[in-house]
Amino acid sequence: MGLFSSRAALLFLFVASAFADQIVLKNGDRITGTVVKKDGANLVIKSDLFGVITTAWDKVESVQGAGSVYVTNKEGKTAQGTVNLANGVVEVGGATLPVADVNAIRNADEQKAFERLQSPGWSQLWAGTGTVGWAGSAGNAKTL
User: Fold this and answer.
1) Residue 51, strand partner residues
2) N or C: which end of the chain has fewer CB within 10 A?
3) 106, 70 Cβ separation under 8 angstroms
4) Do residues 63 and 71 touch, judged by C-beta distance below 8 A?
5) CB-based burial of residue 26 (10 Å sphere; 0-12 exposed, 13-18 middle, 19+ buried)?
6) What is the mean pLDDT of residues 16-38?
7) What is Dmax (Cα atoms) for the chain?
8) How far apart are CA 96 and CA 21, in angstroms?
9) Strand partners, 73
10) Which residues have CB under 8 Å from 23's CB, separation 6+?
11) Tens of pLDDT along 31-49?
12) Which string of DSSP letters, residue by residue, matches 111-126?
């Protein structure tokens, strides 16, 4: 019975990792999770076990994506698909570009938020506050 549960647990871990992004850092560390975004010099990954992990982009050796992401190059062109980074080259949605040309990587939620900020509607991004005040005085004062 113990051998069966050990095999089942190992199979579960294998299947779970098959549907997650695999990130390998240059020091050999491996992170399994979901790529959230790469903006600027950092890559943000969400791991089920460790929560949100932020690492420097130049410390990433390879990425093997399982889910669809949006990759934007320096010219602002965006490609969508699973991302694979190896040997200094990023492949996404049939497009290939050098790692140095990657400006941003975003998952679907981050891309939606980014596009909303680029062209907000007239009712979006407004914030305000209101105050109501009342002051009064009453009384009878006599001075001699």
Assistant:
1) 47
2) C
3) yes
4) no
5) exposed
6) 86
7) 101
8) 19
9) 102
10) 30, 31, 32, 33, 35, 43, 45, 55, 60, 62, 63
11) 999 999 998 899 999 999 8
12) HHHHHHHHS--TTSS-
